[in-house]
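Subject: sequence -> structure tokens, single chain

Hey, anyone have a minute? Need the predicted structure for the following. Not urgent.
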Amino acid sequence: MPTKSKPKGMSKRQLAHFEKRLLEERARVMKELGHYDESFNSSLQASDGDLSSYSFHMADQGTDAMEREKAFLFASQEGRYLWHVNEALRRLYGTPEKYGKCEQCGEDIGFDRLDALPHARLCIKCKAKEEDGKRR
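Reply:
Had a minute. Here:
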């Protein structure tokens, strides 16, 4: 009776390491989003709530609007990053044998790359090709 060969993937220790990295990143981003949410809400309350903090000068109004836009931009960037981290966790839990494999060429993504970007889907070669294609 032939034995099934298990697909060669990462060791359980490596998978546990990347799970920990992803969960740490997720916690950091959630904390950042909470901070942005607080600052965004407080700037909105300040802009339309208390009349004593109402700025009558147009330059002050522009600065207030810019600060709100900056907070929203950072929050949206962090939100996209959180989505990528959550997708990586889904891959890690759902198909651990595929985690750490490039989605385009199937080669292993380097350990250093994954350690720096645990949500990486592409090896460095395929990512470079993708970036090169976007520049054209």
